[in-house]
Amino acid sequence: MTFFARALMGATALTLAASPALAEKLTIATVNNGDMIRMQKLTDDFTSANPDIELEWVTLEENVLRQRVTTDIATKGGQYDIMTIGTYEAPIWAKQGWLVALEGLGDDYDADDLLPAIRGGLTVDGKLYAAPFYGESSMVMYRKDLMEKAGLEMPDAPTWDQIKEAAAAMTDKDNEVYGICLRGKAGWGENMAFLSAMANSYGAKWFDMDWKPQFDGEAWKATLTDYLDLMNNYGPPGASSNGFNENLSLFQTGKCGMWIDATVAASFVTNADDSQVADQVGFALAPDKGLGKRGNWLWAWNLAIPAGSQKVDAAKKFIAWATSKDYLSLVAENEGWANVPPGTRTSLYENQAYLDAAPFAKMTLESINAADPQSPTVDEVPYVGVQFVAIPEFQGIGTAVGQQFSAALAGSITTEQALANAQNVTERTMKKAGYIK
């Protein structure tokens, strides 16, 4: 070997020694909710243990996330290695063959510890296709100080009439305090998540047993009328633009007497670093109308791997880390037990440290267990899903109906027009899809 060749080999060896192996990059699409933002801040724990894996985040508003990941997976676009998807998409996409089954997440993952209500919605033919990052139902979050000032007491299981009475009593528009804050932003997972769950408690349903839409019935009219009455009389201005994050901000700054929304918000509204009313928040089950169903939903944000991914092993490693018992302990260590992602594991609700730190834990678990996706409505229906209908067409019709109801809240159309338009657009889609003639 010549001196030049030896020198060249030596230089090459030094270069290789100085450069780490090329990391495998995982592109993760997720929603801009607080728990996901927190996860991104804690990922040094994962990357230090897995230096061969690099993480790239695409963080999006809820409606935009749904649109992007749906388009990408349906067209096999391959933009994302891990997607944050909901309880709605997981079983539908799994049946389409669009997701990788999450087998082999590690001996210590303990899938049997996942709450049965949450795990069941993510399982197809006995296989888990998405791992829950956090699970939720919905409940009433309210200001105890304003209730006391109004001379009222919130029951653990209120009726809609009691909610209306409390909203009226707490409203002080001159001081920008509104008795109730609810979702008004259009979207199948925004205002229609709330309104579909509310409608269940009113005896309404999306479809009868022949798949005929039911927006022309009295139950939906009563639901929408009462919702608009609450929001127009006791809600904040501009509510037709408010989704989860907007209402969270309003509640944390003391502008809402009550907020009926995702149980996952409980840790944010009781966090003294972020919430001006942290020490005044009480919790109650979502309201009912005395018909046997409460107005609460069932949801989980989950991590899943699109089929055809070239990075399945690395993606499974990340998902196992982010949805594990150890991750909950990591959050507790850094942020306190009250701030761990809720609603996914039985063991969390058997952990006394969590129960002591989280005054909302019991009500969250009760709310999750109260939701029944197999029998969501007062009358029998041909679909499953609490605040959604588990058919592929629902994304489109749910958002179209949500736009009508948001327009009614904004005052640009009447209640009657919104319901008639909802009936027409849903009927047209269901005919085109072959559900009805």
What does the model show?
The chain has helices at residues 3-18, 34-41, 44-49, 62-74, 89-95, 116-120, 144-149, 160-170, 191-201, 218-234, 244-252, 266-269, 312-322, 325-335, 352-357, 361-370, 394-410, 415-432, and strands spanning 24-31, 53-60, 82-86, 123-124, 127-128, 131-136, 138-143, 178-181, 256-262, 281-285, 299-304. It has 437 residues and is an alpha/beta fold. The protein folds into 2 domains: 14-136 and 299-357, Periplasmic binding protein-like II (D-Maltodextrin-Binding Protein, domain 2); 138-297 and 372-432, D-Maltodextrin-Binding Protein, domain 2. Strand 4 and strand 5 form a beta hairpin. The longest helix is centred in the last third of the chain and has 18 residues, at 415-432. It is globular, with a radius of gyration of 24 Å. Mean pLDDT is 93; it is low at 1-20.
Distance between the termini: 83 Å
Spatially, the strands of the biggest sheet line up as 2-1-3-11-6
Q: What's the CATH topology label of the largest domain?
A: D-Maltodextrin-Binding Protein, domain 2
Main sheet overview: 5 strands, mixed
N-to-C SSE series?
HEHHEHEHHEEEEHHEHHHEHEEHHHHHH
Rg for CA atoms: 24 Å
